[in-house]
Design brief:
By secondary structure, the chain is an alpha/beta fold. The protein has three domains: 3-84 and 263-284, Rossmann fold (3-Layer(aba) Sandwich), CATH 3.40.50.10800; 89-171 and 289-303, NadA-like (Rossmann fold, 3-Layer(aba) Sandwich), CATH 3.40.50; 178-257, Rossmann fold, CATH 3.40.50. The chain contains 16 helices and 13 strands. Helix 1 (3-16) packs parallel to helix 15 and helix 3 runs parallel beside helix 4 (62-71). The radius of gyration is 19 Å and the shape is globular. The protein binds iron/sulfur cluster (SF4). Residues 61, 86-88, 114, 172, 174, 235, 260, 262-263 line the site of iron/sulfur cluster.
Length: 305
């Protein structure tokens, strides 16, 4: 089947089988075209929770599918491509978190949403890249262990002089690999462009930016901003989506290497197989883990208000 035929069959099957397709913003346009909701990781879970459907098919990576399951335990949650993982999320496990807690008694553990369910279950509160600063402001704890992203952690830490924040040494290999020299050379090529950066990038790259924010905040800023040119410091798919959304503006990737292979392995064929029950993986989270992980996410919602 060609792309159009695959899309047509997916649209037919998803309504016949009461399925809801969630696609992370880093997915390709052909997947976004058949999805019911597009957004970043926590937005996908929040959307799935509100929708009346039996099955949610997730086009993204494993920790995102787990987060959908934690918020919607009554639904079948299927990860369209079971091979889609996240090196940052996989850089820390529950035992490592317990060890950090033993090393720093009394410290609160703050986990980026890009973590596995079992890691969320060991934490006090989760954060997203857009809510991290606000949640830390509202967190009544002066000692904090921030996991797993050292770059987001440092970005947050720089805003708090009164808290002792210990950073775990994890990172997103795609965002963290962008060097300040690379960013400077693109800025030199496009001197009129505003540079919008995700806080998963290194501190020296973030220091060059005109704007720092989550994927959604970067997209909103680029769409609504008055500038005509933008350099995008996050996954390259966002450049493609913005070019489509704003044909009158110019968008440049900070690097053509900022590509998340894990996000890119999902295909329309995977979605079709998941709908037919011949592919994908139904996500399960043990009830004890689910309950504790849910507490960390509920706390995030409460402190993020
Ligand atoms: S972009 Fe980075 S943090 Fe996001 S899924 Fe890929 S490896 Fe993980």
């Amino acid at each position: 089947m060609n792309t159009r035929e695959l899309q047509k069959e997916i649209l037919r099957l998803k309504s016949e089988r009461n399925c809801f397709i969630l696609a992370h913003s880093y997915q390709s346009d052909d997947i976004l075209e058949v999805s019911d909701f597009t957004g970043d990781s926590f937005a996908l879970s929040a959307a799935a929770k509100k929708i009346d459907c039996e099955t949610a098919i997730l086009c993204g990576v494993r920790f995102m599918a787990e987060t959908v399951k934690i918020l919607s335990p009554e639904k079948h949650v299927v990860l369209a491509n079971p091979g889609a993982g996240c090196p940052m999320a996989d850089s820390i496990d529950a035992e490592k978190v317990r060890e950090l807690k033993r090393m720093h008694p009394g410290y609160a553990v703050v986990a980026y949403i890009n973590t596995t369910a079992e890691v969320k279950a060991e934490c006090d509160v989760c954060v997203t890249s857009s809510s991290a600063v606000r949640i830390m402001e509202n967190l009544d704890s002066e000692g904090i262990i921030f996991i797993p992203d050292r770059n987001l952690g440092r970005y947050v830490k720089n805003r708090f002089r009164d808290k002792d924040i210990i950073l775990y040494d994890g990172s997103c290999p795609r965002h963290a690999n962008i060097s300040a020299d690379t960013a400077r050379s693109v800025m030199k090529l496009h001197p009129e462009a505003r540079f919008l950066v995700h806080p998963e990038c290194g501190e020296d790259v973030v220091g060059l930016a005109h704007f720092v924010g989550s994927t959604k905040e970067i997209m909103d800023e680029a769409v609504s901003g008055s500038a005509g040119e933008y350099i995008i410091g996050t996954e390259i798919s966002i450049v493609q989506h913005l070019c489509r959304a704003c044909p009158g503006k110019k968008f440049y990737p900070v690097s053509n290497d900022l590509v998340c292979g894990d996000m890119r392995i999902t295909s329309l064929g995977d979605i079709l197989d998941a709908l037919n029950g011949t592919g994908g993986e139904e996500i399960t989270v043990p009830p004890v883990i689910l309950k504790k992980a849910r507490r960390s996410i509920d706390r995030m919602i409460e402190l993020g208000r």
